[in-house]
Amino acid sequence: MPTTHAVIMAGGSGTRFWPASRKKRPKQFLPLADGTSLLEASVRRLAGICSPDRIWIVTNPVQARALPKVMPDFPREQILVEPEARDTAPCVALATAAIAAKDHDATMILLPADHLITPVDAFTVMLQRAVAIASDDKTLVTFGVVPDHPSTAYGYIECGERLDAAQPEAKKALRFREKPDLATAEHFVRSGDFLWNSGIFVWSVPAIRAAMAHGNPELGAAASAMLTAMQQNKKSAVTRAFRRAPKTSIDYAVMEKAQHVAVVRANVRWDDVGSFPALTAVGQTDAARNTSVLRGGARSVACESEGNIVYAEGKRTVALFGVKDLVVVAVGDAVMVCPKARAGDLKVLVSRIEHEGLHDLL
Amino acid sequence: MPTTHAVIMAGGSGTRFWPASRKKRPKQFLPLADGTSLLEASVRRLAGICSPDRIWIVTNPVQARALPKVMPDFPREQILVEPEARDTAPCVALATAAIAAKDHDATMILLPADHLITPVDAFTVMLQRAVAIASDDKTLVTFGVVPDHPSTAYGYIECGERLDAAQPEAKKALRFREKPDLATAEHFVRSGDFLWNSGIFVWSVPAIRAAMAHGNPELGAAASAMLTAMQQNKKSAVTRAFRRAPKTSIDYAVMEKAQHVAVVRANVRWDDVGSFPALTAVGQTDAARNTSVLRGGARSVACESEGNIVYAEGKRTVALFGVKDLVVVAVGDAVMVCPKARAGDLKVLVSRIEHEGLHDLL
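ok -> structure tokens follow
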């Protein structure tokens, strides 16, 4: 029976959570999961399926240095550092090489660091089902979330027939569709054949290596070179191979071209915590729909105010008076105010701050 | 020639500047006058008309204790402490007694601590003119500000005929009108006969003592008792007399009933800095009408935002994104956000904070 490894991809910066998130403290480090970080919650959530020495975090050099402070118990040898940001395909190749060097026939779970998923039991069952499907050493398993609205913020997976008549929740994945326009999204949701792409994958090492070689031979070659370099313990050769890998996404380079892709319906509550308004899933909400996420002794008071989101850390109080549908954030040396409707565009503000040379705030 | 004394009334709490203002740090302590406090600016503004040992501050016990920290150079023996809050009439009686104990025929200037008045030269000339009028030992002189809009936030003074054909700027004051409703305010402004009551007064000690005895004999008796107690250096007797004085305003108890009241037109720029939107007169305003008042290293960034007021102290940054006509305040342990249009009602928020038991924030 092959071993099961999990790889948590934690390279994102999360500018849509500024000023709570900064370069050295990305979204996945924020205490958004019942007071612990999304990253730590992602690790804990895997307890039922992987032993701790088979859980990996792939991240960038800045976050890799910050990680031991945030998660002192996480084993440092399980942290994989991407030499540079080259999208998800080289990242998957790196993780595959690291796991293959230990267990050439392992099963791999690949998942983002910054999602909220509950309940854990259902999540474990869902992964176990996928691990069983992936044991054929050829099927790449994805997870699809049933859309509750025609979102243009997620990619979609088109589902085909059942893999197995006895398993209604696992179907063939016919196509991957990137973030659609609203009309297309509405069509997808109406049809009932489309699920949101959760960004969680399960496959065996042999299956992903074959799919990389098939979908993008350059990527496949880079993955093999990384594996050889790791087996020879040559760090600089790993880095060189990584830098030679094509800068592209795993969806585009591999998933869209693979022949055996299954989609498992995710029977869990899933939230990618994309921007501040998503904190309604995390915080305390009062009768006037004001949600607050307060950490480290922070307090909030909402007077004649409704529908606002407050995020605050540290011994401070955020008081709202007569305001509606705002996001108000107070963390460290920064306060940020924007309408909820603009929270998804927060990168614009972050760019402005960068442009004004206020680099200490980033 | 009688000496001239000035009394700065600094007992207000300024809840409309919360959280910049707190109980121990009222509005007049805020660095709103070119980085110095309104109170200190009020003292400095009198340099051309009073010697420092004739400038008095009347305040409450809490602020009297805080004052030496904010203005270490101000002589402590010039600080008069109101034993309790009893509106302005007992406060004037106390100040009158203190001055009369030194100079029984002195001229007194009475003025609020929390107004911005520029330029100083014109202000000095205006006061000198009033001091000359008050030298008849019977006229109580007020200052009227030409209204630029039908404000319902100020009291009005109805002007009669000129005191002296040669002095067009000094007229008889016919009536005092408290804060009117909008229709009345519009009528006042249209008529051209009404000026805003600036809350600044000039009179001689004999004139105000006589006017108190005439307008409110109980008040007059309390003032005389305070004077006797001071001459005998009996502090507890001063306190007892103060507590016996009627709890009423000087406008109601004295000014409205006095027979010789003059109003001098204030040829100065006058701002009572009533609430946060008044900071447009104090701060830096950008092309999108965002005004910021930043002290102690604070910074602000306004991106796609207009018409906002930011007040911040300390090493922190307030960033606005896509917001309009808000007040955002970040001082010490508190952040406050409200629409500019609600800034005048901030007492409601402060009451709520008190009601919720968050007394450390007040």
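The interface with chain A takes residues 19, 299, 301, 303-304, 312, 315-323, 326, 328, 330, 333-339, 341-342, 345-346, 348-349, 352-353, 356, 358, 361 of chain B (CB under 8 Å).
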